[in-house]
Design brief:
By secondary structure, the protein is α/β, with parallel strands linked by helices. It is about 45% helix and about 10% strand. The protein is built from twelve helices and five strands. A five-stranded mixed sheet has the order 3-2-1-4-5, with helices on both faces. Helix 4 crosses helix 6 and helix 10 packs across helix 11.
């Protein structure tokens, strides 16, 4: 009400606006009450709200402008602000910020009916108690002015860390998913013989080049059913987050190289700063470091190697 009168007082006058609003039954403020409200000192709540609104805007901007109420609430509490969930919702409304929404899934991999298909060893149970025990992999795409940029991710189920990724202008096995997998294997830098690699029925993941590479490292392959995104739901979730938090936020994209550089930035943020609900609102790097400290207390003083 105060803001409405402020914006129209020079045109109509305070007394006229207050009298008209009262007559219409939508206002209760008198001209005297308006002037008293204008000179009244700000309440402690409004002062604190002004401070927190600035904090909310800063946190939102620092996290690709994607956080909704749940993650914003967790981020505020991690930074030491004692706020509630509904208070966070109100502050976000005052700050004019909101979380991103994910779009429908688009299929990018094509099944090869002639390929030998490994069994589904995951069966939608995306759970692992240690890193490098279960990886999920999938491909998505980005429209650019040059054509399509294809992006392959390999994700560690335990820590939700993106273990490997690659961007290319083609979906050929050797140019895209195999690069992403080799990136993941290089970053892991450990024995992967206890690892299960899960993907969909895409011909890239069933190709000889890819399956031979898995066999070379002693990795167990696993493949979900045809046309069922739930059988690779965690990988689909990473793709959806990537499209919602980066690709749609910064479109249009001009070149494949531009997508690659932006993906590098997003993966680093996703690993080191993005709060994951499934990890108790911790970033993957922090969660993995805590696992390492719990498993090897003598090494807890050694900082975790954070890679992209």
């Amino acid at each position: 009400m105060i803001a409405f009168i402020d914006s129209h007082r020079t045109r109509f006058g305070v007394e006229f606006i207050c009298r008209t609003l009262r007559a219409a039954g939508v206002g209760f403020l008198t001209s005297r009450g308006y002037r008293a409200a204008r000179t009244r000192p700000a309440s402690r709540r409004s002062v604190r709200d002004d401070q927190l609104v600035a904090v909310v805007r800063a946190i939102h901007a620092a996290n690709f402008s994607v956080y909704g109420v749940k993650k914003m609430h967790a981020a505020l509490r991690r930074d030491g602000y004692d706020v509630g969930r509904e208070q966070t919702r109100r502050l976000m409304h005052c700050a004019g910020v909101r979380g991103v929404q994910r779009a429908r899934r688009v299929f990018t991999t094509r099944p090869d009916p002639a390929a030998a298909i490994p069994a589904d060893k995951v069966k939608r149970n995306f759970v692992a108690t240690q890193p490098n025990r279960l990886w999920v992999a999938d491909i998505t795409y980005v429209r650019t002015w040059q054509g399509f940029a294809y992006v392959a991710f390999v994700t560690d189920v335990c820590t939700r860390r993106i273990a490997g990724w690659h961007v290319a202008s083609t979906m050929r096995t050797e140019d895209l998913p195999l690069h992403a997998f080799n990136h993941a294997a290089w970053q892991a830098n450990t024995d992967l013989s206890e690892l299960t690699h899960h993907s969909d029925h895409g011909s890239q993941y069933l190709s000889l080049a890819y399956t031979d590479r898995l066999a070379e490292l002693g990795i167990t392959p696993s493949v979900g059913t045809v046309g069922d995104s739930y059988d690779n739901a965690l990988a689909e979730s990473v793709n959806a987050a990537y499209k919602a938090e980066l690709i749609r936020q910064r479109s249009p994209w001009r070149t494949v190289e531009q997508v690659e550089l932006a993906t590098l930035e997003w993966v680093w943020w996703y690993t080191n700063h993005r709060l994951h609900e499934s990890l108790g609102y911790q970033p993957p790097a922090e969660y993995e470091a805590a696992l390492r400290a719990a498993s090897h207390p003598s090494e807890s003083a050694v900082p975790a190697l954070v890679t992209t």
